[in-house]
Design a protein that fits this description.
Layout (H helix, E strand, L loop, with lengths): L2 H29 L13 H8 L8 H5 L7 H15 L12 H11 L4 H8 L7 H5 L2 H6 L22 E2 L8 E2 L48 E4 L4 E4 L8 E3 L2 E3 L6 H8 L40 H4 L31 H18 L1
Antiparallel strand pairs: 1-2, 3-4, 5-6
Amino acid sequence: MNRILRIFILVSIVILIGLLVFGGSYGYWIVASPEKTCASCHEIGSSVKTMGESAHTQISCFECHGTAFSNGLHSLSEKSQMIFSHLKSKPESENIRMTEAQYLETMERCVKCHQTEYAEWKSSGHSATYASIFLDEKHNKTEQLNFDCLRCHGMFYEKTINELVDPISTEGPWRLKDQVKAKQPVIPCMACHQIHSLGVPAKSPDYSNPNNIFYRRNLENNSVGFYSRHEKTHFHLSQLPTPVMLNGTDTVKSPDDHVYRLCVQCHAPSVWHQAGQGDDRTLMGVHEGLSCTACHERHSNNQRNSCLKCHPAISNCKLDVLTMNTTYSNPASPHNIHSVSCKDCHHEFSKKVIKEFFEK
C-alpha cells in the first residue's frame, strides 16, 4: 500500500470519527432535556425556568429557536457568536437578548401551531410593515417622525429613527435607509405575547363541573403582555396600570377587562388623559365601560357585526344599528362609535318622527 493511499485512509477515518462524534453530540443536544443542554448556560437559565412553567412547557427549545443548522451557515454563525458571547468576560454577556431578526424568525415558527391566529393577525392592521407606517406621506406631512414612534411601531428595532428613515422632517420624499425593513412587520406576535410566561398547557375542561364549561368560566391570557422598547422586557398584564381617563372634568369608567390595559399602551391618550384624544380609543357615551374585545376580535381586530352582539336587528327603538349614522357604517359620520351618545342618534330619530307626524 503506497503512502498516499495510507494518508487518504487515515484522513477518512479521522473524518468519519469526527462526524460520528459530532452527529452523536448534535443528536443528544436535540433530544436531551433542556436542563442538561440549554439550561447548563447560566445566562439563559432563567429563561429555561420560566419556559418550564409556561403553556409551552412541553415544546422543545429548538422548535421555536431552531437548531445550529436550521438556516444553514447563518444559524451556525449565530450559534458561534453565542458561544463567543458566553466566553467573554464582559457584563453584557450575562443578559443575552434576541435580535429583531431572530424574533421574526421565531414568529414564523409560531405559525406551525397557531395558524388561525397568524392568519387573523395577517389580515389585521397590526400586521403593518415598516414601509406602510414610516413612508405614509399623509401622516408624515401632518406629524414629524420622532424617536417615540418606535415605542409602538418597531419595538424590537435595535437602531434609532434617524437610522431608519430619511429625512426626519415633514417634507419628503421619505425613504427607508435599509430596504430590507420595508416588508417586515412593525408589530410582530411578541409585541403583545411573552412566550416565556407563567401558564399551563391547553387541556379539555372537567365536563363533570358545569362551571368549567359555562359561559362564566375564566378566560386565561397567560402570555399576553406589553413589550417595552426602553426597558427591553415584557410586562405582564397584571403589571400594567389602568389609566385614569377623563371626559372634560368627568372621570370615564375604564373597562374591567385587563386586555384594555394592554391596548391603551399604544392607543394612548394625550398627556392630559382626555379620552378620545391622541390615539386613545377609550369608550365614552353609551358604550362607556365596555372592553375593546367586546367589539374587536383579539387577533384580526375585526369588528364586523359587533353591534349585533348586543343590538338585535329588530330592536325596540326601530333603528337599524348597522345603518345608523355613526362611524360604524360611515367613517365620515360626525358620531364616533367610541363616543356616541343617545342624543346623537335619537335626536335625529325624534326629528324624523315629528316631521312625519305633521306631514300626515
